[in-house]
């Protein structure tokens, strides 16, 4: 593997290129046994059809494929393979898959699975992803399992629950005169709005969440499912777009101020931050967020470490405080306040959230016992009367959307995101940026003008709301729900960070946190990374650039292809316009930047560039 790949991804492992399948106007990319980017006439019809097997913590098995045969004809394609998943204590699930596509717009994906022994799973079967670009809020026809047909719409604002249940088929318009029907057979399917988790899709999946999980697939009992796509109609196939043209940048009007940039500090990282104080000063965050969780053993030592750092680096400070909610709330929170005073920690704000809310409550599940949020916030206000109070979720927008906090008691609301909850391939992680404007719009629809913070949001998952733990990733792989992700240390992470800030900038956030200072989520490298230990990772430049723009007016900006290049533009008080560009792809991109100091800019893979 080349050194360049290591610099890009933070790992020497590179994803294999997908196999492009073609049948007339129908195309699909075959990768790891599944289909991605299913298009008709160049328009994305489905984002994916995937056969997924998940473990009891919602982790995804990576099945080993054998007997793979791909036959690409002149106007048809066929794929067949065998695969197996090996679970705990040697349990095993084998399955056989066939995929057929034809020039008349027909695509069939069929899987028969046979457990060799009893096999425990949270989900086993197809997931079908409809894209959100051009489809959010659009008209669809839903066929239910009883044969009834309903004309309805896909959600525009993010639906906290399942928009459609008991699904047999869903049909949408691809372009005028052309429709796509996706039909699911072999089990009961329902749809969830995956934008909750910052996935850029609506997901139709097998087995309703209201049924118990995990569940057992009995040994020797065959399980067969089929997904059929039918694209039909008389609409004209659009001419192929010219791919060689430079990507154009268009600037609009000035909008809200760009947010303060925060850095989260964990109890074991304070002293390292102090030892690297010049680097922290060079990074320049406006806010330090201190994570504090008494249920994990955090106490006075952690608060004293934070106090030393806060004294050495003058910035606003927020305590991210987990509340156990066991016993008297006033006693618990006044106890925290007393230790904060004893430690000499000067706080600008505190955000509180119940410990039980770190775990998600899926549809159909009983809500865990928890005091009313109104009581928790009232106790926090009594304990910390002189600083700003925030609430929301220390997990993801999903949980905030399902358990909506009483914002009238709060000075700000907050949540995080993570792009590897469901998938961890490069394309899915970058596509997750498409969902962020829907998340901010949905939050604003719920909470109105209440000051709004996001983060810490990183590629890696800091805690798993959907299972017992995050997935260990010591080998630096691309793993869903992993506690660390190698791409955070590569140029990929730097591009994702600029792209993230660009997507949320119109929302007028008060604060945005996209990293810690050290550790797996940090801007400083560990040993064995593309840069030397304790040297700045590529993400350092991204975060530093965002820190420098805090308080500038956001300038509406877009590119002619935001799946490949995103831009963040801002205007200073003196009227100077600054623009950051991020190449979201592994290919070289040419960008037309007319109006700045030069006309064309050639961007290398995952490059970030400041203009102005």
Automatic annotation (TrEMBL):
It comes from the Bacteria. Residues 7-233 form the D-apionate lactonase N-terminal domain. This is Uncharacterized protein. Residues 563-611 form the D-apionate lactonase C-terminal domain. It comes from Mesorhizobium mediterraneum. Residues 261-551 form the D-apionate lactonase TIM barrel domain.
């Amino acid at each position: 593997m080349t050194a360049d790949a290591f610099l890009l991804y933070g790992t020497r492992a590179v994803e294999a290129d997908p196999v492009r399948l073609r049948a007339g106007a129908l195309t699909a990319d075959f990768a790891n046994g599944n289909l991605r980017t299913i298009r008709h006439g160049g328009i994305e019809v489905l984002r994916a059809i995937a056969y997924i097997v998940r473990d009891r913590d919602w982790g995804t098995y990576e099945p080993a494929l054998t007997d793979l045969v791909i036959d690409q004809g002149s106007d048809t394609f066929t794929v067949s393979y065998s695969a197996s998943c090996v679970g705990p204590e040697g349990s095993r699930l084998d399955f056989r898959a066939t995929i057929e596509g034809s020039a008349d717009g027909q695509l069939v994906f069929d899987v028969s699975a046979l457990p060799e022994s009893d096999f425990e799973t949270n989900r086993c079967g197809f997931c079908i992803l409809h894209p959100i670009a051009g489809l959010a809020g659009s008209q669809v026809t839903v066929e239910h399992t009883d044969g009834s047909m309903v004309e309805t719409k896909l959600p525009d604002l993010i639906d906290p629950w399942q928009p459609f249940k008991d699904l047999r088929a869903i049909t949408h318009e691809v372009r005028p005169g052309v429709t796509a029907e996706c039909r699911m057979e072999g089990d009961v399917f329902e749809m969830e709005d995956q934008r909750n988790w910052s996935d850029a899709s609506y997901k139709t999946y097998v087995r309703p969440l209201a049924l118990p999980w995990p569940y057992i697939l009995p040994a020797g009992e065959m399980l067969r499912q089929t997904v059929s796509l039918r694209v039909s109609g008389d609409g004209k196939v659009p001419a192929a777009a010219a791919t060689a043209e430079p990507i154009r940048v268009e600037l609009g009007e000035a909008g809200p101020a760009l947010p303060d940039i925060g850095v989260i500090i964990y109890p074991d990282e304070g002293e390292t931050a102090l030892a690297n104080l010049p680097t922290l000063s060079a990074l320049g965050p406006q806010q330090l967020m201190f994570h504090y969780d008494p249920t994990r053993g955090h106490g006075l030592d952690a608060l004293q470490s934070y106090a030393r750092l806060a004294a050495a680096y003058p910035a606003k400070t927020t305590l991210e405080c987990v509340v156990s909610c066991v016993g008297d709330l006033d006693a618990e929170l006044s106890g925290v306040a007393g230790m904060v005073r004893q430690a000499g920690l000067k706080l600008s704000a505190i955000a509180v959230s119940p410990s039980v809310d770190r775990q998600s409550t899926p549809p159909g599940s009983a809500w865990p016992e928890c005091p009313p949020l109104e009581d928790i916030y009232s106790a926090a206000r009594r304990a910390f009367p002189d600083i700003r109070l925030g609430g929301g979720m220390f997990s993801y927008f999903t949980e905030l959307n399902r358990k909506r906090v009483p914002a009238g008691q709060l000075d700000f609301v907050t949540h995080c995101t993570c792009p590897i909850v469901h998938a961890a391939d490069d394309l899915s992680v970058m596509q997750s940026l498409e969902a962020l404007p829907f998340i901010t719009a949905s939050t604003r629809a719920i909470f109105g003008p209440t000051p709004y913070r996001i983060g810490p949001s990183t590629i890696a998952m800091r805690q798993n709301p959907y299972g017992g733990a995050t997935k260990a990733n010591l080998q630096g792989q691309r793993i869903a729900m992993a506690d660390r992700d190698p791409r955070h240390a590569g140029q990929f992470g730097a591009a994702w960070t600029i792209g993230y800030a660009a997507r949320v900038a119109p929302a007028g956030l008060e604060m945005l946190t996209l990293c810690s200072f050290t550790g797996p989520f940090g801007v400083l490298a560990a040993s064995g990374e593309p840069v030397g230990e304790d040297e700045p990772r590529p993400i350092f430049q991204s975060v530093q650039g965002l820190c420098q723009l805090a308080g500038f007016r956001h300038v509406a900006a877009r590119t002619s292809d935001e799946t490949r290049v995103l831009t963040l533009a801002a205007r200073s008080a003196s009227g100077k316009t600054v623009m950051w560009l991020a190449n979201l792809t592994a290919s070289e991109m040419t960008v037309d930047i007319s109006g700045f100091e030069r006309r064309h800019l050639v961007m290398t893979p995952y490059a970030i560039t400041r203009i102005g």
